[in-house]
Amino acid sequence: MSEDMDIPENLAQIARFPKRRGAIFQMDADNKGLALVDVKSGTLKIYVLIDPDAEDILDTKFFTYGGPVLTALAEVLCEELLGKKIGEVQNLPLENLFGRLEVGPDSEDFQTVAKLPAMITEAYPEKRNVAFAARAAMGSEKLKACTAEGRAGADAEWVALSENQMLEKIEECLDEHVRAMLAGDGGGLEVLGIKDGKTVLIRYQGACAGCGAASGGTLYYIEDRLQQHVYYGLTVEPEMQIWTLGEVYEH
Predict the structure, then answer these.
(1) How confident is the model at residue 142 (pLDDT cuts 50, 70, 90)?
(2) 164: number of Cβ within 10 Å
(3) CATH fold for domain 1-150
(4) Can you tell me the mean pLDDT for 172-196?
(5) Distance CA 197, CA 145 (A)
(6) CATH of 161-251 given 3.30.300.130, 3.30.930.10, 3.30.460.10, 3.30.1330.10
(7) Residues spanned by CATH 3.30.300.130 within the chain?
(8) Run of H or E including 31
(9) Residue ranges of the chain assigned to CATH 3.90.1010.10
(10) Are 53 and 147 in contact (CB under 8 A)?
């Protein structure tokens, strides 16, 4: 892919460093008693994780082999969906959102992404039933952790920690579940801090610092380990690295 494509710089910047590129797996949703909607439009697949009690969207990811425009639109859509109710999905102002990137409704990429809200809404009722079926098979303690009440308890425990205590738990998890895997490929990471108690700021090291997968599968794996073993509400934000568009899409 050419680096000098005639696209707006703000769009190109989003495409270079997408935060929501990755996947959410059905097994993880089942283990948490949550509904996972995964739908595909063209070369774009989006994953939406939903609390079937409150019907809040808790997490979103996407994956595409498309170009920078499609990647940027998918990133914007995923960010916009976070925190919304599932009932709000079909009313998203896509023309306004994508218009800021100078992408209009006549664009093929716009049309690809614009199909997704209706697909998500249509698929949700069946996925909600899957989530409740998974909960029915759980023990009482695990079930409690899947409910809005259980997450509220986790929230209260987490915000009661000092920043140093949060970082200590994060470092322990990374030491136990992540760093050995990265080191096996010649990479590593450094924790730079935590923002607003939920966003873990990291710097990739070694081979990870120059790998496009560090913004995709690797990043998802790190987030997943932290959400599983530290606090479900954590996300990971890498320090901006210098990747070209071509390097990102080769991975």
Answers:
(1) low
(2) 9
(3) Sufe protein. Chain: A (3.90.1010)
(4) 92
(5) 20
(6) 3.30.300.130
(7) 161-251
(8) helix 26-32
(9) 1-150
(10) yes
Q: Of 170, 147, 143, whose CA–CA distance to 158 is shortest?
A: 170
DSSP symbols for 104-161: -TTSHHHHHHHTHHHHHHHHHHHHHHHHHHHHHTS-HHHHHHHSHHHHHHHHHHHHTS
User: Is the confidence at residue 236, as pLDDT, over 50?
Assistant: yes
Task: Determine how β-strand 235-238 pairs with β-strand 199-206.
Answer: parallel
- Record the pTM: 0.67
CA-closest candidate to residue 146, choices 28, 23, 54, 31: 31
- Quick count: other Cβ atoms within 10 Å of Cβ 223? 19
R_g over Cα of the chain: 18
Contacts of 119 (CB under 8 A, 6+ apart): 39, 41
- pLDDT band of 212, cuts 50, 70, 90: low
CA 151/CA 148 separation, integer angstroms? 5
pLDDT at 179: 93
CA distance 39 to 89: 14
* Of the candidate ranges 50-64, 148-162, 209-223, the one whose mean pLDDT is the lowest: 209-223
Please give the structure tokens belonging to residue 127: 């996925």
In the block, residue with structure tokens 């696209």: 7
- CB burial class (10 A; 0-12, 13-18, 19+) of residue 73? buried
